[in-house]
Design goal:
This protein has 570 residues and is of the alpha/beta class. It has three domains: 124 residues, Glucose Oxidase, domain 1; 107 residues, Orthogonal Bundle (Enzyme I, Chain A, domain 2), CATH 1.10.274; 305 residues, TIM Barrel. The protein has 23 helices and 16 strands. The strands form two sheets. Strands 1-8-7-3-4-5-6-2 form an eight-stranded mixed beta sheet. An eight-stranded parallel beta barrel has the order 9-10-11-12-13-14-15-16, surrounded by four helices. Helix 1 packs across helix 5 and helix 11 packs parallel to helix 13. The longest helix has 30 residues.
Length: 570
């Protein structure tokens, strides 16, 4: 048995065999061959296996995500069967005695360079298709496994260096029982997605990909942050008991599913959820969510070869709003850039993408992307209680420009005969320190604030939350952060507005009493955190915690804050 310590990212216990979601080593030594016909047979075999895989992936994607997502794999299948690509590879093998691997890569590289140099966006996208297909065929020529997360059809624990949002979007929770990664923290996208999928996860282990072999039996302890490799029978029995106890705890939490969120002194706050897709709404309702505090719309744009249409977006927003009924749904407009890339948008490569051309900055410069999203949201607004939120706002001018475009599209839709709700609140995410500092000025113009602490903390502390060497500076309870949060809440209340929080801090058991004392109105978190938070709030007094506010804000270190709040609430 080996025990690997990591960061508990999503609660629960899972036991299954390991599935490595790691891009294989595709290097090889280039040689000439003596029998071209045998080499062509190798190529044909690799092409046939690749075709079978892609057809399965396409069928799975069609069933799970719909026709538009499946079109990506239709394009890959077309590449595999294109004689314009395949015949030159075979000619190179036949005429130059080239090994199949070299003939494939050299021919594919020529086509990729040719397509990438074209002005036509559609043709540039074909370069990406050829690159993906080439990797798959090359893996089969080399006899190494190519990871296909969408094709997992047995219970597994996914082991990866990291998981991209598109990776996690392909995971089927019926079979993927948990995952562990080398890098990441509680606020990394892989961790956030694990909580959305409601599967146990441990991240930031540093060594899990090199320690765990394919098909090893693995236990994921998402409660304490441990990965146990090849456990003994006694270990398995102990963790099965821990799993059963956790299930009992979940059953106790579930008793509060339909209860209002009240503190011990009768004060009511709102517990809502962060979601990424319309399918996540089921989890929100099953966990007693009182609304959606953050709908991350970028997942509509991922795993595709082109932008979603206005109608496609309208259907997604309508679905969420109708499922939530009268409960509020806060939709964040497109937030790409940073660690969320969309290949078909051809975003510039930047030295500091988290501080670069992303979110509202991208949208204001690309109205052909922004306006269809706003139109889709406005059209969907009649189907529920919609609130629109702009991300990454640094200046009042940005908010005013974004709202101007929104109102312009509202006027256009009205002229076209579409119904649009007249009660849509328009707010901003507060994730940049400049905005938190002048929250009083913003509060006069916005309808609400939602504090995005994942980014606010890293910007305030000048510490990349994905960089393990400076992870000690990612301090949610630091007095500097608490003072910024307090500034935003006070500014909102002075203008009769509400303030929420949609960063992971909102569901943190240590932060919850602090935020309650600061007067936060709305706590938005992973759906699975809602019932534990409701249970916790039921046992603490808002009045008592508010009386400690000045003491907390005047403290010097995060350690002092944590020690103080534990003393007062335990």
């Amino acid at each position: 048995m080996t025990n690997i310590q990591g960061i508990a990212a999503s609660s629960g216990i899972a036991i299954a065999k390991a599935y490595h979601l790691v891009t294989p080593d595709l290097t090889y030594t280039k040689t000439t061959i003596e029998d071209p016909s045998k080499e062509i047979e190798r190529l044909d075999s690799a092409l046939a296996i690749s075709k079978q895989e892609l057809e399965k992936i396409k069928a799975h994607t069609l069933k799970e995500l719909g026709e538009e997502h499946a079109e990506i794999f239709s394009a890959h299948l077309l590449v595999l069967g294109d004689p314009e690509l395949i015949n030159p590879i075979k000619d190179k093998i036949q005429n130059e005695n080239a090994m199949a691997e070299a003939a494939l890569e050299e021919t594919a590289s020529m086509f990729i360079q040719m397509f990438e140099s074209m002005d036509n966006e559609y043709m540039r996208e074909r370069a990406a298709d050829i690159r993906d297909v080439t990797k798959r065929v090359l893996a089969h020529l080399l006899g190494v496994s190519f990871p296909n997360p969408a094709l997992i059809d047995e219970e597994v624990i996914v082991i990866a260096g990291d998981l991209t949002p598109s990776d996690t979007a392909q995971l089927n929770r019926q079979f993927v029982k948990g995952f562990a990664t080398d890098i990441g923290g509680r606020t990394s996208h892989s961790a956030i997605m694990a909580r959305s999928l409601e599967i146990p996860a441990v991240v930031g282990t540093k060594t899990v990909t090199t320690t765990v072999a394919k098909d090893d039996i693995v236990i994921i302890d998402g409660i304490d942050g441990n990965v146990i490799v090849n456990p003994s029978e006694a270990d398995i029995k102990a963790y099965e008991e821990k799993q059963a106890n956790f299930a009992k705890q979940q059953a106790l939490w579930a008793e509060l599913k339909d209860e209002p969120t009240l503190t011990s002194d009768g004060e009511q706050v709102e517990l809502v959820a962060n979601i990424g897709t319309p399918d996540d709404v089921i989890g929100v309702l099953n966990n007693g969510g009182e609304g959606v505090g953050l709908y991350r719309t970028e997942f509509l744009y991922m795993g595709k070869s082109e932008l979603p249409t206005e109608d496609e977006q309208y259907e997604a927003y309508k679905s969420v709003l109708e499922q939530m009924g009268e409960k509020p749904v806060v939709v964040r407009t497109l937030d790409v850039g940073g660690d969320k890339e969309l290949p078909y948008l051809d975003l510039p490569k930047e030295l500091n993408p988290f501080l670069g051309f992303r979110a509202i900055r991208f949208c204001l410069e690309n109205e052909h992307v922004f306006r269809p999203q706003l139109r889709a949201l406005l059209r969907a607004s009649v189907h529920g209680n919609l609130k629109i939120m702009f991300p990454m706002i640094a200046t009042l001018e940005e908010f005013r420009k974004a709202k101007e475009i929104l109102l312009d599209e509202k006027a256009n839709l009205t002229k076209e005969g579409h119904q649009v709700s007249d009660s849509i609140e328009v707010g901003i995410m507060v994730e940049i320190p400049s905005t938190a500092v002048i929250a009083k000025q913003f509060a006069k113009e916005v309808d609400f604030f939602s504090i995005g602490t994942n980014d606010l903390i890293q910007y305030t502390m000048a510490a990349d939350r994905m960089n393990e060497q400076v992870s000690y500076l990612y301090q949610p309870y630091h007095p500097a952060i608490l003072n910024l949060v307090n500034n935003v809440i006070e500014a909102a209340h002075q203008e009769g507005k509400w303030a929420g929080m949609c960063g992971e801090m909102a569901g943190d058991p240590i932060a919850i009493p602090i935020l309650l004392g600061l007067g936060l109105d709305e706590f938005s978190m992973s759906a699975t955190s809602i019932l534990p938070a409701r249970t916790q709030l039921k046992g603490i007094s808002k009045k008592d915690l508010a009386s400690y506010k000045e003491q907390l804000l005047s403290m010097s270190t995060a350690e002092e804050v944590v020690a103080f709040i534990k003393e007062k609430t335990e």
